[in-house]
Amino acid sequence: MKKQEIQAKLAKKNVGFKEDDNEFAGFYDGRKERMIDQAVRLGMDQDEVSEFIDNHGMYEENVQILKDHLNHSAYINPLTIKKENVTKRSAWVQD
Fold first, then answer.
1. Cα separations (Å) of 87 from 75, 82, 83, 91, 93?
2. Is 82 among the domain residues?
């Protein structure tokens, strides 16, 4: 009975990650700004870094990832690969 009550309460809450009403948006925006500031201190362009993070995302808060992949237009974040884009020979797919 308790499990069902908890599930009902959670279902009533809006736990989705919509950009408009995301309760965690401020948290992630702050982390993004700190990452951009750190990259700018290392000599990277603020607009390029911000655009890279917006377009590709970051799987780890590591400026080295930015340094390595900022100028690679073909970079794909490993956490955003969709299953239909992965070939059968890929290590991502289990046979």
1. 17, 11, 9, 9, 8
2. yes
Surface-to-core class of residue 38, CB atoms within 10 Å of its CB (0-12 exposed, 13-18 middle, 19+ buried)? middle
| Tokens found for residue 12 | 């009533």
pTM above 0.85, yes or no: no
Domain contains 64: yes
Calpha distance 17→20 (Å, rounded): 9
Are 34 and 62 in contact by the 8 Å Cβ rule? The answer is no
pLDDT digits (tens, 9 = 90+) for 17-31: 445 556 677 788 888
Which residue range(s) make up the domain with 66? 21-95
> Residue 68 domain-assigned?
yes
